[in-house]
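Fold these two proteins, one after the other.
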Amino acid sequence: MQDNLAKETVNKSAQIVESPFSSNFVRLSWIEWLITLVIVLVVVFILPFVWASEEQFNYTDDFRLPYKLGEDYELYERLCKEVSRGYDNIVVGDSVVWGQFVESSQTLSHHLSVLSGKKFANMGIDGLHPIAAYGLIKYYGRDIKNKNVYLHFNFLWISSSASDLQTDKEVRINHPGLIPQFFPKISCYFAPFSVRLGTVLNRFCDFCGWVRHIQLVYLQNDEPDISFVRWFVSHPYQNPFAGMNTRLGSLFEGVERKKQAVEAKEGLKRDLPFVEIDKSLQWKYFMKTIEILQERQNKVFVIAGPFNEHILNKQSFDALSKIKSDIEKNLLEKKIKSYIAEVLPEDYFADPSHPIARGYEYLAKEIVKRIE
């Protein structure tokens, strides 16, 4: 009797082990797998386009990408499409173009519009160094075609080997999602392989860009990198998409908080080890950006500077003067029109590279003289 019970127990155990599925598994038929695949494809490929068509904002003169959405490249791509339909003149660059210390009605693009009688669009982004600008235009600025593009170069990005991204030490890099991830190698960029691979995939995946857009527009508050899970845990009873039709428009229309000018320290001169343009990685990518824009039938006008040269010691002042001369020669050889900003009055600056409203107006007058 006991032997029979033992054999029966062993047989039942064997049956349990050999069973490929248990009660915790769901086995889909091939039709159910097909339905699942269709649903996933609809979400991944169609939802971003449907969302973009429903999420409305009216781009008007003097609008600029909201400061907090500086890494929303999906939105920047949509802006390029919008701007290309209504503007023939587009200004591209970093926070100097964006207008770090001025209101949207005091920026370079605004003064250019007023003085020239033509419409200029402000497509500046804070922290957009030339290497990042190359990635932005290459992957997200495809709709900028057959336009007059005013491309700004900030001397701040070649003020040291670290700024030029040529140091072997790890440094904080603005817009890492736009720089080359594998080739050529950026020596101061230490992101792991998984991050680099994910960044490359994001450039070609509309769904990934849409997810990032949702995070920045609807979830971001004090935490710029908050995830969906963390947000819903912190806000269990809130709908993040409440007011969807007005949220993005309010970000554009809201008054951007401008920074306060940096107080200059009298008598203190800076020693900045500027990188010559023939050795500069940033300048190399600046020229590559020009090539991409020209391939898309754009007419490129380069604006180099200004820089508050009053704060430099003699060695740095002379080095920057030579760089300005080399840039002018370089652009002339390639038949690229340009304005290399001369030395502006010191009180026209808020910090080493950002003008105040009077500085922008002065720059616009000089640029208009050259384009007319």
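Now the second one:
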Amino acid sequence: MTMRQGSDRLAALRGASVSLAAAILAGCQSQAALYDTRSIDTAAASDVNIASLTEVVQQNPSDPAAYNVRGTAFGKAGKLKEAKADFDQAIKLNPGYYQAYANRALVYRRMGEDAAALADYNQAIQVNPNYDVAYAGRGNIYRGRGQLDLALADFNRAIQLDSTDPKAFHNRALIHQARGDHQLAIQDFTQAISFAPQAAEPFNGRGLSYLAMGDTKAALDDFNQAVRRDPQSYEGWTNQALAWEKLGEREKAFASFSHAFALNSGYAPARDGMQRMSRGGLKTSAL
């Protein structure tokens, strides 16, 4: 790669505004759901791409954007130490690089270092008070700590800044759900679905709120949509089974519990559900 090619590549990558927070998908009702439709190229984590980005870094050793972009690829590849090192260098070269602070914060979160992540989100917000990604990320930390008022304020701010961000709506819905405000949760899950219709998590979340409100058929419809989008979701299959159970469809419930158990034999709600259905007289094999 020539120096001119390296510069052109870096300019293109910088223009794409790639961020690690927009690249990593996650999904579990009990955790921070960081799914996002604005993901980077699916080949970003490949060895070939990382090697190419390394050439860009070598051609532009003083440009923080080069390190930030390569750090994003390392993060997507699960190489967290390498990602952190690149974000460290990007911040060293440009202490006002708020995107790199938010990217490093997400790496810290994946390392289980929430205090360091919180400090980085705070720094990103101090540099750019209108950076919605940092509010959404910080809100997840507050939610994980049980500081729901602070989390809610951050998600409200993120939504105010970017009203099309499904993560913020989804995570705010989880707070409403935890507080028993299921109608508000359903509204936010519905908004998340409208912006990320292929994501399973908001269907699962909305289904749980419908189930809590006694609308079992609506809940079942949502759980069906969730497992259609993510057939590996043992939580989704278990939730579907719970809806079938409430509707009195014990054989269908057992089948869904069994599917969840096959995906994760350590998931107690699936195992317990199978046992309940077995005690009801179904002809099943031994668990």
